[in-house]
Amino acid sequence: MTAFVCFFFRDPERVIPEEGGAIVSPADGKVLSVGVVPENEFAAEKMLKMSIFMSVFNVHVNRMPDNGRVTDVVYHPGKFFSANLDKASANNERNAISLEIGRGRKLIVIQIAGLIARRIICKIRKGDLLRRGERFGMICFGSRLDVYLPEDTVPAVSAGDKVLAGKSILGHLL
Questions:
Q1: Whole-number average pLDDT of the chain
Q2: 5 in helix, strand or coil?
């Protein structure tokens, strides 16, 4: 049990891409979906949504997808459905982080608790200035992150791809 806990809470160093306009993955895991979604409770416009599922075997430290200023952090209590199900985005306990990433553009990262994950950790506050790849929190024991990007972002991943937090490029801003 001790070995599993040590394995689960590992936090490896990562080389963060410096490529201009690149958006990096906020989580290790498997890309569940990539697609444009209509306005919703988090955004007043259409955005490109990417969902990443973290199994209990992935690193669970979350990292910032891009440089930006935190404009809001909103916690939503909820249920604990399996994080790989679509209904987890709307029904599960979650923490939504909105960032202004320059030129008035918005990026949203949502930490979503899973079936056995019962703890979302978020170490940032409204007004914080963050860097691409910077650690901001974690979700314990299997979970999901949804990332909402400007609609014109060019995706660099597809459903089924494996990604690493702070290292894998999800897409490029135009």
A1: 90
A2: helix
